[in-house]
Amino acid sequence: MTGSGSGDTGVQELVRNGGNANLQAETAKELTVGVVIQPSMVKNLSLTVDYYNIAIDNAIATIGAANILNGCYNNGNDQYCALISRNNAGTIQAINDVNQNTAQRSTAGLDFAVRYGLPTNVGRFGFSFDGNWLQKYDSTTKLATGDQTIHAKDNYDLLLVLPSFRANAGLDYSLSGFTAGIVGRYVGGFDECSNPGDPTTSAGGLCTIDNNTQNQFRRRVSAYFQTDLHVGYAMNTAVGKTSIFAGISNLFDVNPPYVYSAALGSSDPSAYDYLGRYVYARLQQKF
Question: Which one of 2, 148, 221, 271 counts the least CB within 10 Å of its CB?
Fold first, then answer.
């Protein structure tokens, strides 16, 4: 029966997730092209560039509780209403949102890296740089109301941190058994709109959908930069090789940027450091 109001004034609903015996295998088409440059005129320098283009069909995903609720109560779709369990009063008991072959995913971009080593009379210096430029990250979901394509590059529409650019850079020094280094990690900024599951805004609060830019409640999540330090010393002893390491992660105690649509702690632990500044030490003994 088509829903005409759940009668539920709560802000959270129970969702049942799980497997599906009717699932089909995902299929993918991948194109990768890479080049490595090691110029003879500059010793110990290497540059690599890799282009990737990946398309996944029959991607396994869920419809999403927000899409089910929106499709039933706002669009009157019987298929979505059948996924909602209600009691006799119409109050929602649970939403059945199991895995389905409901999506197509495609992504493309460039991975690039630079390595350079400089031996000197006072030790060896090494420089490293790894970066990624994201060309696209699109997800098309087959909904009962029609296909919906989300362009997630530089947006948080898929609840993933997908900036146009991110990189790691490091500088290391070594002399005999002594090593030290500094590493910087950069995650670019991106846009966040209202909650992607909010049915009260156009396109469900998404920033970009079906090539149309939605402007409601748009905000820019700032870029993030973290600095780590490490130092170590390895020596041969009568009982084998002893190594001592110490370091400081997140030297400047940088807080992760707020991502209000994130599912945990108003940010995303898969992309940012939640611990803040901390010091560690490790003793390793090889016999």
Answer: 2
